[in-house]
Each structure stands twice: as C-alpha cells, then as structure tokens.
Design brief:
This protein is α/β, with parallel strands linked by helices. A seven-stranded parallel β-sheet has the order 3-2-1-4-5-6-7, sandwiched between helices. A six-stranded parallel β-sheet has the order 10-9-8-11-12-13, with helices on both faces. α1 packs across α16, α3 crosses α4 and α9 packs across α14. The protein is built from 17 helices and 13 strands. The chain is globular. It folds into two domains: 202 residues, Glycogen Phosphorylase B (Rossmann fold, 3-Layer(aba) Sandwich), CATH 3.40.50; 164 residues, 3-Layer(aba) Sandwich (Rossmann fold). Helix content is 45%, strand content 15%.
Length: 388
Amino acid sequence: MKRKLGIVTGSRAEYGYLRPLMKKIKEDKELEFILYVTGMHLAKEYGNTVEEIKKDGFVIDGTVDMDIKEDNSLYDFVASIGKGIIGFAEVLSKDNPEIVVVFGDRPEPFAAAVSASTMNIPVAHINGGDIGLGDIDNNIRHAITKFSHIHFTASKKSMERVLKLGEEEWRVFHVGALSLDTLLNVKLLSQKELCKKYGIFDMPYILVSYHPISSEWEKAESQIRSVIESVDAVANEENLGVIITYPSAYPGGYQIIEVLKDYSLKNQRVLLFKNFPHIHYASLMKASKVFVGNSSSGIIEAPSLGTPYICVGKRQSGRERAKNVIDVGYEKEEIINGIKKALHNQEFLKEVKKCESPYGKGDSSNKIVKILKEIKINKDLIIKKMTY
C-alpha cells in the first residue's frame, strides 16, 4: 500500500519552495501524492497562480477557498482562517491522507494544521522554529509547531527552538532550507533571458519586495513610501532600473499596492509585477545589483545567490543572517546609505560573494521524503508529549 501524503500550498512563494519536494513525492513509487491548493493561489487580484501549478503538470485534488481579498482587513484576515479550517476539514475527510505536509508561517498552513491535527492526521511542518519578531507570522509559525507531529527545520538554531518548545527529539529533523533545493540545483535565467521573457530592463536594477506587517498594518502606506522614495533617489542618481513585486495579502497589502501602482505609472524606469515563478524570481534576485525589502527570501535565498540585501524594518528581526544583509530602519537617509553601501563598498561586496548561508546546501527534499516514507504512523506519533 502506498502512503498517502497531502501537500498544502497557499501562495506563489511557498509553491516555489515546495515544488521540488512535490515532484519527488509524486515520482516516488511508495507514496501517493495528494495536492491541496488554497489562499492567494485562488485570488485573481494576486495573479490566479493556481494556473502555474496546473502548467507544471500537477493534478489538484482539492481546493480550499479562504476568500482572500485584495483589501484585507484584520477581520477578513481572521475570517479567512476560519473558512480555511472548515474547508480543510471537508477535503481531508474526503481523501483521508496519512500525513499532511505544511510549510512555513502563513494562515493557510495554520488552517490546514488545525484541521488535520484535530482529525488525528499527523502534520509534518517545514520551517518551524524560525524567528521573525515583527509580525503575526511568528506566532502562527510556533502555533503550527504545537499542532504538528513531525518537524523539518531549516537551521540548527531553529531545531533548538523547536526542542525548547517541548517537542520530543525523535520528531525533529534538521534538513536545511527547502527553498535552496531549486536555487542550487537548477540553472537560473540570465538577465538577457529575463529581458526577453518579461520585458525587463537591459540595465542594472534594484529589486524590491516589501510586505505589510500585521501588527502595524496601518503604517503600511507610510512605510512603503519611505522605501520607494529612498530606492527612487538612488536609482535616479545611479541610473538604475527598479523592479517591484506585489506584497502578500495581509492587512495593509492593498495600501502598499495602491502606492506601488501610482509610483510605477509615473516612472518609466520602474516595473511592477504581481508575481513570478520561483525560479524566475530567484533569477531576478541574482541578476539585481541589490535587493531591498522585508522578505525572508533576502535572508534565506539571497546569500546563496551572492546578492546584497537591505532588510528594512523589523519583520525579519531575530532570523539568522548571513553577511549579505544590511539591516536598516525606515528613515530615508538610513535606507539610502544602506543601498549605496551595497552598491559601492568593495569590502562588503567581497564578503557577500563568499558568505556562507546558515540554511543548508540544497538537499532538503531528499531528506524529507526519506523521513516521510520511514516514520511510523501510530499512536506514539499522534499523541504528543511535552518534554518538560
């Protein structure tokens, strides 16, 4: 009998990370692959990225509409989690997977983990134990850990945090960052290829990816204005292009989008995109002169690409960093100085090119598949015990 694994994906970024693992599970003769698509994938406002999954040849076994809105309020944010819990209860009852695999710290994996765990279905959580002190994601991530039965951590420090949360040692596996499986094993697109595919500049550019912080969503507009005005000042002075991606669908995301739309319409050197496939996003990151924003991709992926990252604000506070990261606040002068250091400080640039990532070497999916195949599914797995 094949072991039935249910995989949950709710956003374009998360799907890019999960894709190599999904492919390996699908191709394994001892495993049955069940795919659940939810969240931002189903929202037209964010590019309807469910179509990308279909184009990659994956059969979608179930969809869970969490009613993600472009202008998400705090109420909408909470209501979508409730809808997700109910939706996952329905699809899991239909398919009866033996393990449900979730990734990260968003509302979609949280809803899936609550449903599966309550239905006595073991949950395998990827990227537990990370820290990002500036957002609700931090709480969601640790809550998923407590609902989960198997833990795959991206770094040794994350593994230590999961253990300190009271999880039994035999449940916790340090496998590295799954997002690096693609980056370190697939040929990335050159800037010339990106120009041809997306019509981007044939010139040096700054990449920007900034997300709202749920604990201070009402400041989203002023924060993105500070970021964009700083980037614009440097881009004009240095004759650089600017490529910007959409934020997540958290409260404050709509306000950020409106600012970005207005900014891109008024500036010929600025290009705004709703989303990219993960490999193309990574290619854009690698080809950029500097990456600016508050995305975890600048912390986890950019080091392996040799890309300098200006990390703005507190969204990624506490997360382990390599030497490619320059942390700044919201003052324009501080952001501008950070960008200029990343562009011109030769000592810093040398450190970036040779920096070591704390997030592994791109072999996580093989480790995860092996564990998911071999771990015993019994009462010991289902009934969790605190270690203190």
